[in-house]
Write a sequence for this structure.
């Protein structure tokens, strides 16, 4: 078995140093009802029988007389804290913790206001005790522990402690003891996971570490005699050893395991004989997970925060800001970064051309693979990739790999720096040049002004030469000047007006090519509002060829305009358009082939996808729609979002298809008998009310489809039995209002064990299907709610607004 890479390195623990602990402590083992401790007084802790651990108040350094209710190692100089109650609310001198006559363990400030109390005490407390294991317990008449700090951990577990299902270790902030962004928890699916949360909520992002113990894991055990940490099954067998090497004996060393402020879960050991008062020197790393946290991508702001760069130094993450960016919080290296300069957008008055105001700064061995790319350009050189971002007001960075150039906008996430990265990153930063002063009161583009100035310079030189030359020489010289000016203008025009992505990326096929590729349109993959799709082979690659119905009467111009918009889109949650055919009356589109078919067949088939897979599909669809609505150069309204128009690639990533085709289709080609776009059951109410059609129609359709993804059933199923369940949107809202979420996912234990996420997704869906379009969130907000960046509030009844207006 291979040793964990973290072994052998010391950790610079950024634990806050605590004031010298010189006050006396009570030595009796048991704490009687009515006893109390006061912060800053001569009696400020209760000791365990051997004096190894203490429970009480620790004064926090670098604060104005603030105290923490905590448990710490009493016999070591640094008094390392292993449990704390009020990290988010330090208390002042004179605060009191008391085991009341009624058996409550409460912390009050000097004004008598309750700051913290031990929760979920079932039984009658007779006394409390600080044990030699580091566990503070409340005990009943039967000597049973009816509350204990071990079952209410903060950021650390100790030998003999068990992290049970439902328990969570939360990191603390780098500069204080308030709750941090990282947590460790054993899940009901058998895995131990590490993930980030969106503070100050409890909304969690996808894990950046999973133990992969399948369904066997049940709890995490820190063995008291061997100090080995392992995952144990419900029946007591060891599923996986986390401690993967021989470690120092508990007789000679203290041990603890902590989820550090940087998100790494680490087991430490310290010689009991050491007299050092410095955590850096005294505690050494036994092992840690993950060994390279920077390489683990996740949803959210990442390990180091937005716009920052994460790199591994001695197996520990170090966060830094790129050039001309600084920390949001100078005291918190995980707070993310912000630009020191003004990155002007497309809708701001900007004086000065981009190449004067900005420059592209190359970042070596750096990439942001978790950031959303809003456009891909290929084939592009380094210079072209830099210019593509420099002259794009929405672009803040571009990356280049294998002649493929990706544009990114702020904020960036999951930035990492590693010596083996082959991606080239170019960050747009300030050039340091002030905007040029206008030469007159007439507004002119800088490019035209520069051209005119250079033209005047050329002709000035010409005039000077002409004055002293013969007619023949003058003729030759004038011809040369004319050619120079002509070539200069041509070059400038090529620079400013580069070929569009449509012209460079999409391939024009003949009808004969596609007839041969599909073997005479032999194998039909599906059909819908926009036409019939056939399977084909081009250049030994599978493709999907869509034969469109009758297109709009504007013909070629409209067809090319829409294809240009579609061809410029690039997103991992959109089906890629490869090429087209516009020959005679034939209008065909060629797409990349999606091997796993449509979401409809996958979702409503005999075996439904698992809960985690369904949630990832929902997230992908939301991100794809957000890109179409807000990140394309021209917003795209899909108008027919449904499972049949969502395809799945080799890795079951959701890909939206048929986007941007609504304008190409003649009105009588829609699925309904009116000019309404879309499919029955997914159509937003405003279609029927002659209201303006906006991107909110797609939000409505997404809400319906999200409910289908949650429940693995179609929106309309009359055979479900009874009118109550026939319409999914109505029934799902009823179940939410009545608290019957289990009815929506019956027999789906994975979903029931993740009830928090289930409720969140259902609330998002109900917000999306609000009758009033203005009440529906944008797709950007939907993504933020799904990812936990924005808290999901309680949605109103979807039909409440309409009923109120009508009455």
């Amino acid at each position: 078995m291979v040793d964990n890479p973290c072994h052998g390195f010391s950790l610079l623990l950024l634990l806050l140093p605590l004031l010298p602990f010189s006050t006396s402590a009570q030595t009796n083992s048991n704490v009687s009802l009515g006893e109390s401790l006061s912060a800053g007084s001569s009696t400020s802790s209760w000791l365990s029988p051997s004096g190894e651990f203490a429970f009480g108040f620790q004064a926090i350094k670098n604060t104005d007389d603030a105290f923490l209710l905590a448990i710490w190692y009493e016999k070591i100089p640094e008094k390392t804290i292993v449990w704390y109650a009020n990290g988010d609310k330090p208390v002042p001198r004179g605060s009191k913790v008391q085991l009341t006559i009624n058996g409550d363990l409460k912390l009050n400030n000097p004004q008598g206001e309750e700051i913290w109390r031990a929760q979920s005490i079932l039984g009658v407390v007779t006394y409390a005790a600080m044990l030699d294991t580091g566990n503070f317990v409340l005990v009943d008449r039967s000597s049973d522990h009816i509350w204990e700090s071990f079952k209410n951990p903060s950021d650390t577990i100790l030998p003999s402690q068990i992290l049970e299902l439902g328990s969570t270790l939360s990191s603390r902030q780098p500069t204080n003891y308030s709750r941090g962004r990282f947590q460790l928890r054993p899940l009901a699916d058998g895995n131990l996971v590490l993930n980030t949360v969106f503070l100050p909520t409890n909304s969690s992002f996808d894990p950046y570490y999973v133990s992969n113990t399948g369904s066997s894991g049940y709890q995490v055990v820190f063995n008291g005699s061997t100090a080995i940490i392992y995952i144990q099954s419900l029946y007591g067998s060891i599923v996986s050893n986390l401690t993967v090497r021989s470690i120092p004996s508990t007789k000679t060393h203290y041990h603890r395991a902590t989820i550090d402020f940087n998100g790494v879960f680490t087991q430490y050991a310290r010689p009991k004989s050491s007299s050092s008062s410095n955590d850096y020197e005294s505690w050494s790393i036994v092992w840690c997970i993950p060994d390279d946290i920077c390489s683990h991508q996740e949803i959210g702001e990442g390990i180091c925060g937005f716009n920052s760069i994460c790199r591994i130094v001695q197996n520990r993450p170090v966060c830094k800001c790129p050039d001309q960016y600084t920390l949001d919080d100078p005291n918190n290296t995980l707070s993310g970064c912000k630009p020191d300069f003004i990155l002007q957008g497309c809708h701001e008055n900007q004086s000065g051309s981009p190449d004067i105001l900005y420059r592209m700064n190359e970042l070596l061995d750096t990439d942001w693979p978790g950031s959303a790319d809003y456009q891909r350009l290929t084939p592009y050189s380094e210079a072209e990739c830099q210019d593509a971002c420099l002259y794009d007001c929405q672009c803040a960075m571009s990356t280049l790999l294998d002649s493929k150039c990706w544009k990114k906008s702020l904020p960036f996430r999951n930035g990492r720096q590693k010596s083996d990265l082959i991606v080239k990153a170019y960050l747009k930063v300030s050039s340091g040049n002030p905007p040029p002063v206008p030469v007159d009161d007439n507004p002119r583009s800088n490019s035209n002004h520069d051209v005119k100035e250079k033209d005047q310079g050329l002709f000035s030189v010409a005039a000077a030469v002409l004055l002293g030359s013969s007619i023949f020489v003058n003729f030759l010289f004038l011809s040369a000047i004319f050619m120079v000016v002509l070539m200069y203008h041509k070059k400038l025009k090529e620079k400013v007006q580069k070929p569009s992505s449509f012209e460079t990326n999409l391939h024009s096929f003949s009808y004969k090519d596609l007839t041969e590729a599909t073997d005479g349109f032999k194998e039909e993959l599906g059909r819908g509002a926009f036409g019939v799709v056939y399977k084909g082979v081009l250049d030994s690659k599978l493709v999907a060829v869509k034969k469109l119905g009758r297109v709009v009467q504007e013909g070629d111009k409209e067809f090319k305009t829409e294809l240009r918009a579609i061809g410029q889109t690039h997103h991992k949650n959109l089906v890629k358009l490869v090429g087209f055919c516009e020959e005679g009356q034939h209008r065909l589109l060629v797409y990349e082939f999606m091997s796993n078919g449509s979401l409809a067949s996958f979702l409503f088939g005999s075996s439904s996808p698992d809960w985690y897979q369904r949630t990832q599909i929902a997230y992908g669809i939301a991100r794809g729609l957000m890109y179409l609505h807000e990140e394309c150069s021209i917003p795209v309204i899909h108008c027919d979002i449904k499972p049949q128009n969502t395809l799945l690639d080799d890795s079951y990533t959701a890909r939206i298809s048929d986007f941007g085709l609504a304008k190409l289709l003649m009105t009588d080609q829609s699925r309904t008998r009116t000019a309404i776009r879309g499919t029955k059951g997914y159509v937003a109410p405003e279609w029927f009310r002659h209201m303006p059609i906006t991107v909110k129609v797609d939000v409505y359709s997404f809400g319906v489809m999200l409910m289908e993804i949650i429940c693995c059933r179609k929106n309309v199923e009359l055979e479900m039995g009874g009118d109550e369940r026939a319409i999914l949107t109505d029934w799902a809202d009823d179940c939410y209002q009545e608290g019957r979420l289990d009815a929506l996912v019956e027999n789906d234990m994975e979903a029931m064990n993740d009830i928090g996420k289930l409720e969140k997704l259902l609330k998002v869906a109900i917000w999306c299907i609000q009758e009033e379009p203005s009440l529906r969130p944008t797709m950007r907000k939907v993504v933020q709610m799904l990812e936990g960046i924005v808290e999901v509030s309680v949605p109103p009844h979807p039909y409440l607004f309409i009923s109120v207006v009508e009455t």
Q: What stands out?
A: Residues 335 and 561 are 44 Å apart (CA to CA). The first strand starts at residue 30 and ends at 32. The mean pLDDT is 80.
